[in-house]
Amino acid sequence: MNGRIIAACGNDCAACPRYTAPPFEKTEEELRRTAELWMKIGYRDRVVSNEEIACTGCKAGNRCRYGVVECCGEKGIDTCGACSLYPCERMLDCFAVTASFEPDCREACTEAEYAQLKRAFFEKEENLAALRGTTGGRE
User: Fold this and answer.
1) 20 to 30 A from 37, CA-CA: which of 18, 30, 94, 111?
2) Which residues have C-beta within 8 Å of that of residue 136, sequence separation ≥ 6?
3) DSSP 3-state assignment of 12?
4) What DSSP state is assigned to residue 66?
5) Could you tell me what percent of the chain has a pLDDT over 90?
């Protein structure tokens, strides 16, 4: 998984335009463009501040839409791919909701923006499969 930082749910943080943990710092302009993109694709209803759009990764206490971070923390694992129950209902929901965003992203984004979002968010199953040492997303 060279050059990747895989989140609890399988996102590739290193590819994410919001991820600002070193060495992936973003300029003020990059964060502003990301906030504008999030509004354009419907992830936000307004252009939020750079502080609000910036992310330093999955940590206890951060909001996780699917509760994946909390679940992994309770089980003492880094990603859902390390769980014996994978893929559980929570992850199947996560995959389905994420997939539902893809058509709007493809339509609203430039080719480069979409390619970045695809790598960051729409390859969760593949990323978790690679961590598990399997070829497919679901076993």
Assistant:
1) 94
2) 125, 129
3) strand
4) T
5) 76
